[in-house]
């Protein structure tokens, strides 16, 4: 019990996550150090219009992010409006990149509770958001890159696993939350979140799943276009045909970071996935 207590201590978690981030950033730092001269030349040739276009695309894409919680809780007893959802989302972003326990979901739940929203409603909305984000990003990546993308042997298997897994999870959480609630034994807040899901009519749940998935798919397209504009800022002669690849790579890198719980906010993992 003493060993377990020390392993679960905040200091150990902090050190572990900081080490995980460092390991993810090592190959990127080594590559940058090796090519620093070329990077400096590229940095001096950056095209300002392309940089502004990239920033604008990221701002537009970010406006989609708080929409899932607002859409899911529409019609619920304790509705979370877009304004409060946006405040909680963007308010928690700076802290999710820090090693510790405040990143991703806990920070947003805390802020939503401070805004007067019920814990179970907030949790249910965030679960819905996560499943639709993974489902939509998997669909976009598979449609743009194909199941045999990059001709890597393992890519097709991973793509199928992500797509089928996210689809099944979305259906289970949205179509049959009562069954998930019965399977779960703890924590109680998650069981209450499933009860909130079950309280919304099935047709409304499916409609929200479809609309939110489509909205997030549009977000990935805009976000990927922003990544393409950032690359074009270093090389304005890139073929426009690479836009599809850039969107697919950007979406896959976000998904890789999202599915890496050891790295707060996916930092390091996303960048390594882009380089790979």
Compact summary:
This protein has 14 helices and no strands. The protein has helices at 2-7, 10-34, 36-44, 48-62, 67-72, 82-96, 105-114, 119-145, 153-175, 177-183, 188-198, 202-232, 242-258, 269-275.
List the helices and strands and how they pair.
Elements: H1 2-7, H2 10-34, H3 36-44, H4 48-62, H5 67-72, H6 82-96, H7 105-114, H8 119-145, H9 153-175, H10 177-183, H11 188-198, H12 202-232, H13 242-258, H14 269-275
DSSP helix fraction: over 70%
The low-confidence runs, each spanning 5 or more residues with pLDDT under 50, are none
N-to-C CA distance: 41 Å
Provide a count of the helices. 14
Helix vs. strand class:
mainly alpha
Q: Give the radius of gyration.
A: 20 Å
pLDDT averaged residue by residue = 79
Number of strands: 0
**Shape assignment:** globular
| Biggest sheet layout | none
Secondary-structure element order, N to C: HHHHHHHHHHHHHH
Estimated share of beta-strand residues: under 5%
Structural summary, described in words:
The protein has 276 residues and is an all-alpha fold. It has helices at 2-7, 10-34, 36-44, 48-62, 67-72, 82-96, 105-114, 119-145, 153-175, 177-183, 188-198, 202-232, 242-258, 269-275. The protein is 76% helix and 0% strand. Helix 8 (119-145) runs antiparallel to helix 13. It is globular and about 55 Å long.
Highlighted features:
mainly alpha
